[in-house]
Design a protein that fits this description.
Layout (H helix, E strand, L loop, with lengths): L2 E5 L2 E3 L5 E8 L8 E6 L5 E7 L6 E3 L7 E6 L4 E6 L8 E7 L17 E5 L2
Parallel strand pairs: 2-10
Antiparallel strand pairs: 1-3, 3-8, 4-5, 4-9, 5-6, 7-8, 9-10
Length: 122
């Protein structure tokens, strides 16, 4: 059974940092790209970042570029999202998703975890 479990969310003040982790099991972790998505209250899913299967290529949405860093540890079946200079607009539930290809999700984020809440507020 494919499982993705996010952790590391919480309440942080504007300008602060959090590091999210996503532990995966039930499939060959190093074969596929991984993505982070988020869903703010009352809004749809927003793609945040993607990393290819070996960690050599990363992409970011314009809203987080320069502040967030995605990485992965294939030996530990874990993908990370380091979030710096957090803003209230970053408040959302953050999900990690397993892509079907080594370098892309092709917009398919159906295989994802249950999410972790990130709240940025003073």
């Amino acid at each position: 059974e494919v499982q993705l479990v996010e952790s590391g969310g919480g309440l942080v003040q504007p300008g602060g940092s959090l590091r999210l982790a996503c532990a995966a099991s039930g499939f060959t972790f190093s074969n596929s790209a991984k993505a982070w998505l988020r869903q703010a209250p009352g809004k749809g899913f927003e793609w945040v970042s993607l990393i290819n299967n070996v960690g050599s290529n990363t992409r970011y949405s314009d809203s987080v570029k320069g502040r967030f860093i995605i990485s992965r540890d294939n030996a530990k079946n874990t993908v990370f999202l380091q979030m710096n200079s957090l803003k209230p607009d970053d408040t959302a539930v953050y999900y990690c998703a397993k892509c079907e290809l080594a370098n892309s999700c092709l917009g398919n984020y159906a295989t994802r975890g249950r999410g972790t809440q990130v709240t940025v507020s003073s």
